[in-house]
Amino acid sequence: MTAASVMASMAATLWGAAAWATDMLPPRARYGYVHRATAAVLHRPLLRLVGDWHTDAAGAGTMDGADAVDRTRSGDADDVDRERPDEADAVDRERPGGAGDAVSARPGDADAATSGRPARVDVVAAARAPGPAPGTEPVRCVLLTDALDVGGIGTVVELLADGLAARGVQPVVLSPADGDRSRRLRDRGIRALVAADERTATALLRELDPDVLQLHGAPEYLERAAIASGVPMVPVLHNTEIHFSTARWVRFAALLERSATAIAVSDTVRAFHVRHCPPALADRFTTVANGAAPPAEHRARRDAARRLLGAMLGADLDDDVLFVALGRYDAQKNVAGTVASFLRALDAAPSDAGPAPRLVFAGAASDWVEYRRARALRDASPHRDRVHLLGPSDADLLLAAADAFLLNSFFEGWPVAASEAAARGLPLLLAEFGGAAELVADDPARSILIPNAVGTPEAVSDAAVRTARRHSRHQDNAEALAAAVRRMVANRPAETPADDTAVRAAAARLSEMLDQHATILAAAARARVH
């Protein structure tokens, strides 16, 4: 073991102690104060990839911008990586899409198509519906949500806003602040309004006179305005909310009691909420699985994407089996445990020449202690050059270059990033959380479901996550993840399979999701909630 590895191992222990101390605080203090304070102290800019990539008619990859690469390093990118000039750069754009703060330039962004670039999918065309019957008035629906540019919820709201109009529902999006996604929606003719306080929200709802409201993690003041409006409500439940306090569950039960129904994005999310709500409200829940925008044809772009990514990483990817993970550096995503378990697979890999696994994790750092700990665990390993921890990066490039998608979160509702990867025909390696079993069942020959490090997904809790994080080096599912990585490497096909089937399946799933939401909203608009 080299001196650098010993120092990195010690650093991982210290960062683990910091994570343990943070985990002992109440969630409100943890997320409201500590993460902000550590970000102010620990945040440093990572390497940046400036511009966007595309392929020409021959499939050759090119970058827009001045060589597209800003090689300037600073801050924590220097701390460990001065001797790693091969580390990839983060994309120099705010992420407008899903995948939980992971990436920018989402493949489904209709407005991302520009002259000379491959056309991005038209979500409405991909999930076309006949629309309302002639002479039928559309259902007026306001989608109330939190920050649109953060997390997978924003992606789902955008998909709904794009697709509901063709199904007889006229959407308006209402959020606390303006941003990239709001502007894109307005560019496509969809009203996206801002209400920074309850008084503004109340006035807007009165002016809009909607038939139904759909709530997507809306902040408390928007909830109050929605309840006070007397308009039928449909909350959409996107995750297993392990950080809800007793008072927060009481507030949710009161909202549910006044709602026509509640949509859970997976059976796991439904079961979790049923356990925490009064039995009399159990029949209010229904499950509608999340969909994802089917991608534009990208098979011809795979080689170009791998060449570009290889150049960014300073690595030859020809014989690599590339696992891509997209998500925030956050306790929920279990980044440190994922890195440690992936390194275990590399420890057991044969030393002779042949396909070898490589991991690229890309995302925004909402918890800089988690990022530092994951990086220290990586740098303590002799295989550190095969694990890359990037900032917000181009999802289109990463998914086009990938051989498999990996997500080992402690909990999820229905991960949008995994749906997007499946839509591109990638095999999935998922821990057992909301939506994972359903996604793996769509491709059982190639995808793998492993146990979750915290146990059964319905029983996940803050305490269980805290315990698993204390054992990030040796989590209960570490060997299962390592074995799954080795199996996927061994079963890597010589040729990438055609993804037409995956694209059609993604379009069908998205269409079904939109149809179900439209049906539920129309029924709620007709109902009288007492």
Automatic annotation (TrEMBL):
Residues 68-96 have a biased composition (Basic and acidic residues). GO terms for molecular function: glycosyltransferase activity. Pfam families: Glyco_transf_4, Glycos_transf_1. Keywords: Glycosyltransferase, Signal, Transferase. Residues 60-118 are annotated as: Disordered. Residues 319-452 form the Glycosyl transferase family domain. InterPro entries: Glyco_trans_1, Glyco_trans_4-like_N. Residues 1-21 form the signal peptide. It comes from the Bacteria. This is Glycosyltransferase involved in cell wall biosynthesis.
